[in-house]
Amino acid sequence: MSAANIAQPEGFIALPGSAQPHYDDATVMFRFKDLLLLAMFDISTLRPLPKEMLLTTFKASVDDAIARSELTTTPVSLLNTLQCFAGKLNEQPHGGCVSITVAFINTQRVWGYCAGDVRMGYVLGGALNWHSPVHTAANVFAPFTDELKFSAGRHILTRCLKLHRTFEPEYFQFDLRDDSQIVCATDGFWCDPQWGNTQSLVSEPSQHPIDDCTCLWFNPNALLAKTVPSLAHSELQFFTQYDHLQICT
């Protein structure tokens, strides 16, 4: 792959789908000392919930866990924080559901939880490598493959964060190389034949995405080395007030 076709070092795509009334994906990132916490949400079109409520509740849940010294890098701690987040949402009278992926990221590893079809992986050698599971009716008994992108069952979620229902996200983790870039995307990116490839990280396709299209990518080594966040977008909430805080194991 030529240098001209290598993905930009970091970037963020957030576009409303041509078939959608408005953009309803959401992305949040917290920066700690030598650690990031990333969350990406894909709100259901058929069963939507208020986006501002979702984002405000997630930040409040993370803030509360930090204030109580209950947020650590262990999977159990992160799961407890997510269950508290789901519980706070359940206090609202609203219904609705959302695909969710939340993960810790350091320079060597990614670990977290997901429910639905927001995917995480990395870019390496000019290729997208997806590593978090996908929960759809198209792949109930096996990992998701490219051939299933065109299956009708892909649009039926077998796991999600659904208000007033039991929330059971799945744990995942994968290792990183120093030269790899983290990538996190909703299905409006990774499942769109025009968008779901590394060329879209170089220059955006001329064809508008069908569904809400979100993709975030960056090199954790480079991002954590910067004193000022370089990723800025109106649809990306990047909180740095805890950048001095060492999250314990």
UniProtKB/TrEMBL annotation:
InterPro entries tied to this protein: PPM-type-like_dom_sf
Superkingdom of origin organism: Bacteria
Protein name: PPM-type phosphatase domain-containing protein
Gene3D superfamilies on file: PPM-type phosphatase domain
